[in-house]
Specification:
Layout (H helix, E strand, L loop, with lengths): L1 H18 L7 E7 L15 E7 L8 E6 L4 H19 L16 E5 L2 E5 L8 E3 L6
Helix pairs in contact: 1-2
């Protein structure tokens, strides 16, 4: 389980780094196994997952929780976790395009494409594509 927790932490840290200077000044506060007593967001089933808590510092009442699924292929888990963090960051900043798609004004999308989790241009994957976690590819 320790390797899975470390991996989920690496994913969240890579996403936070990639969101850039315009993103909230968040860091990973905790990664732990999801417990049944923790209710997932409405409409999201999380039978076997890790809870990643991100925020400004310990005791941050505005900290957010995202889920890293252990029940799906890893690239899909990475993309979904990245998208959850991205959604919270965009909401926190009032709609800043995070991370900004090179040459465009919109944010990139987190997607699993060809077996890899990547940030891609939502209009044209051929325009831009990069790994979400470059050092773990």
């Amino acid at each position: 389980m320790s390797a899975e927790i470390d991996y989920a932490r690496d994913v969240a840290e890579a996403v936070l780094d990639r969101l850039g200077d315009r993103a909230p000044p968040w860091r990973v506060l905790a990664v732990e196994r999801h417990r049944e007593s923790q209710a997932p967001p409405p409409g999201l089933a999380v039978p076997d997952s890790l809870v990643v808590t991100i925020g400004r510092d310990e005791g941050d009442e505005a900290a957010v929780r995202v889920y890293f699924s252990l029940d799906v292929p890893r690239e899909q888990a990475v993309a979904v976790t990245a998208a959850q963090i991205q959604d919270h960051a965009i909401e926190e900043t009032g709609g800043a395009p995070l991370p900004l798609c090179p040459g465009h004004r919109h944010p990139m999308s987190a997607r699993a494409v060809d077996g890899l989790a990547g940030w891609v241009c939502p209009q044209d994957v051929a325009h831009h594509r990069e790994p979400i976690v470059p050092h773990l590819v």
